[in-house]
Design a protein that fits this description.
five-stranded antiparallel β-sheet, 1% helix, Arylsulfate_ST, signal, ASST-domain-containing protein, 1 helix, six-stranded mixed β-sheet
Length: 553
C-alpha cells in the first residue's frame, strides 16, 4: 500500500473486538482450538478512510462495522449492501457485501462499482442481484445516475444472467457503454421480468421554465425487460407524460447543452403493482401510479398530497427514494419511502426518515392519508441528502439505509413504542460523514453454498502477530486460516492431515469462528486440508486444496 501503514487497532468497542479462542479437546471428539482471526486496519496517512477488516486466506477488505444494539429482537436475516466512495477514498475496497448483524463478513463480491445488491426471486428460486457499471459525477445537474448492466447470481454465486442493452437511447457526450441500464432500479417482477430505470439525453423546449427553447433534458425512463432476451416489454417516458414546471429541481445552469442536461424528474424507484407500475420521482417530490398504456392514474406528492388530499402532520416529504406500495386491498394500501428531506449537503440538515402513509384506494381527498411511521432517532438523527432505502421486515421491524451517510439501522415496530418514530434496535456505521455512500441496504434471508472451494492458508505460529492460540495450541507450531467466501451455513471445519498428500485422515473438528477461522494444526502434520460442514451435520460439503506444511499446495 505504498507509504500507507496498517495499524492493528487495540479496540475498545465491543462491536469491533475479535472473539476469544474457542474449543478444547473433549472426551469424545477432538475439537481443535480456534478463534476468529479478523483484524482491523486503518490508513495511518489518510483519516478519511474508514477502518477495514483484513484476513490471511482472503483478499477481501470490507469495512469494519461500528455496531450499537439494544438487545431487543431483530429480524433473523443477513445485512446486504454495496459501498460507494464519494470524492475521497472513504472505503478501502468498493464491493457488494453480505454481513451478519454482528458485523462479520459473509460474502465479498467483485471489487468494482456496484449498486443495489439484494436478494430477489427468479423462477421461484432465490437469487442475488446487483448493478455494475459506471456512475456519473460532476455538477448536481448531471450527477446521480449511471450506465451499466444487471447481474444475477444463483445460490452458488454462479452468474446465471447478465442483462445488458443500450435501449437505443442517447448518451451524454463522452460516455461510451454497451449497456445503458441505470443504477437506481433493478426489480425482478412476479412475472419473471426485470424493471429498470434509464436516463435518455433528449432535446426539449425549456422556455416554459425560463430555459432555452432548444434545450436538453435527462428524460427518465421506466423500462420492463425480458431477462433472457433483453426485449423491451414496456417503456414509459417522464417527458412524454408530465409537465416540466412541476419539477422541484432548479434549472440553474443546466439544460443548455447535451453535456449538462436538465434532470427534471430523476427516477429512482419502480415497483410492479398488478399490471400497473409505481414510479418514484425525486425531483417532483412525488410517486405516480402508471398503467400499461403509460397513463398516470394518480399522483401522491410530498407537499399537498396530490390526488390523495392533505397530508397529516409529520407526513410531508421531499427528495425521497425507494417508494413501495404494500398491504394493498380494494379500499386501502400502505405506501412508504425513504424520505431524504434534503437535496444538497450544504443545506441546513433535516432528519431523513422511514415514512409510511396509509392511503385510500382509489384516491379520495375526503379520506386523506394517515401517518403510520416516521422512523427516526431523535437522539442521533441522520440527514441524507441523497440515496437511501426503507424496507419492512417480515417480523414487523423496519430497516433503513441512510444513503449518502453510511449508516444502517433496524427499528422495532411502532406498535411497541406508541410513537411513529419507532426505536432503533440495531445500527451500524461504516463510513465518515458523507464520504461513503450505501445507496440501498437490505436485510434478507439468504442461504448459499459457493461453487468455489474453501481457502486455506498455513503459517508458522511464530509468523502470526499476536497469536491468540498460544495458550491452547499445546505442541502445535503451525496455524491454519480458513474461509469460504459466501458460505452462509458452515458451522464447523473438519481438519485432515497426513504424512503425504494421498492419505489424509480426519484428526479434528474446528468450530467456525467469523468469516475466517484460525486454528491450531496438530503437531507432526506434513499436509493439511479442510472440509466444510454445514448446519452441524456430519456431511462435508466441500474440501479445500491440500496444503503442504512449510511449502506450497
Amino acid at each position: 500500500m505504498g507509504l500507507t501503514q496498517l495499524i492493528i487497532l487495540s479496540l475498545i468497542q465491543v462491536s469491533w473486538a475479535t472473539a476469544l479462542p474457542t474449543g478444547q479437546q473433549t472426551s469424545s471428539t477432538p475439537v481443535l482450538c480456534s478463534t476468529d482471526s479478523r483484524q482491523i486496519a486503518v490508513n495511518a496517512s489518510n483519516n478519511a478512510t474508514w477502518p477495514w477488516q483484513t484476513y490471511k486466506s482472503s483478499t477481501a477488505q470490507p469495512p469494519a462495522l461500528l455496531i450499537n444494539k439494544t438487545g431487543d429482537p431483530l429480524y433473523d436475516g443477513l445485512i446486504i449492501f454495496a459501498t460507494e466512495n464519494g470524492g475521497t477514498p472513504a472505503a478501502e475496497q468498493e464491493s457488494p457485501y453480505i454481513f451478519n448483524d454482528e458485523g462479520e463478513l459473509v460474502w465479498s463480491g467483485p471489487v468494482d462499482i456496484t449498486y443495489n445488491v439484494r436478494v430477489q426471486t427468479l423462477n421461484s428460486a432465490p437469487v442475488l442481484t446487483y448493478w455494475s457499471g459506471q456512475g456519473t459525477a460532476g455538477e448536481a445537474a448531471i450527477a446521480g445516475h449511471g450506465y451499466g448492466k444487471f447481474i444475477i447470481l444463483d445460490t452458488s454465486y454462479n452468474v446465471i444472467h447478465t442483462v445488458s442493452t443500450n435501449l437505443n437511447i442517447t448518451l451524454p457526450p463522452g460516455v461510451v457503454t454497451k449497456s445503458a441500464l441505470d443504477l437506481h432500479e433493478s426489480y425482478i417482477t412476479p412475472r419473471n421480468t426485470l424493471l429498470v430505470s434509464a436516463y435518455n439525453t433528449t432535446p426539449a423546449d425549456l422556455s416554459s421554465i425560463g430555459g432555452p427553447k432548444n434545450g436538453w433534458v435527462l428524460d427518465s425512463l421506466a423500462v420492463e425487460l425480458n431477462i433472457t432476451t433483453g426485449e423491451v416489454l414496456f417503456s414509459w417516458s417522464s417527458l412524454d407524460h408530465l409537465p416540466l414546471n412541476k419539477s422541484k429541481e432548479p434549472l440553474g445552469h443546466s439544460g443548455s447543452n447535451a453535456t449538462a442536461p436538465y434532470d427534471f424528474f430523476h427516477i429512482n424507484a419502480i415497483q410492479p403493482v398488478g399490471d400497473n407500475y409505481l414510479i418514484n420521482s425525486r425531483h417532483y417530490w412525488a410517486s405516480f401510479l402508471v398503467n400499461p398504456k403509460g397513463e398516470v392514474l394518480w399522483e401522491l406528492n410530498g407537499y399537498d398530497g396530490g390526488d390523495f388530499g392533505n397530508l397529516p402532520e409529520g407526513g410531508t416529504f421531499s427528495w425521497q427514494h425507494f417508494a413501495r406500495l404494500q398491504e394493498i386491498n380494494s379500499s386501502a394500501a400502505l405506501i412508504h419511502w425513504f424520505a431524504n428531506n434534503n437535496a444538497l449537503a450544504l443545506d441546513a440538515p433535516i432528519p431523513s426518515t422511514g415514512l409510511t402513509l396509509q392511503v385510500t384506494i382509489p384516491p379520495n381527498k375526503a379520506s386523506p392519508p394517515k401517518l403510520i411511521t416516521n422512523f427516526t432517532n431523535p437522539q442521533n438523527p441522520v440527514a441524507a441528502y441523497s440515496q437511501g432505502s426503507f424496507s419492512y421486515l417480515p417480523n414487523g421491524n423496519g430497516f433503513l439505509a441512510y444513503g449518502s451517510n453510511a449508516v444502517l439501522a433496524e427499528y422495532g415496530p411502532v406498535s411497541e413504542t406508541n410513537s411513529t418514530e419507532g426505536q432503533v434496535r440495531w445500527s451500524a456505521q461504516l463510513g465518515y460523514g458523507e464520504s461513503l455512500s450505501v445507496y440501498r441496504g437490505y436485510k434478507s434471508v439468504w442461504h448459499a453454498t459457493p461453487s468455489t472451494e474453501p481457502s486455506l492458508v498455513v503459517l508458522s505460529a511464530k509468523d502470526v502477530q499476536n497469536d491468540d492460540l498460544a495458550l491452547c495450541a499445546g505442541t502445535s507450531t503451525m496455524r491454519g486460516f480458513v474461509s469460504w467466501n459466501g458460505a452462509t451455513d458452515v458451522t464447523d471445519w473438519i481438519v485432515y492431515t497426513g504424512s503425504n498428500n494421498t492419505t489424509l485422515t480426519a484428526v479434528g473438528r474446528v468450530n467456525k469462528a467469523g468469516f475466517e477461522t484460525q486454528f491450531a494444526i496438530p503437531a507432526g502434520a506434513a499436509f493439511v486440508q479442510i472440509g466444510a460442514v454445514e448446519n452441524n451435520s456430519n456431511f462435508v460439503a466441500r474440501r479445500s486444496s491440500i496444503v503442504k506444511i512449510g511449502g506450497s499446495s
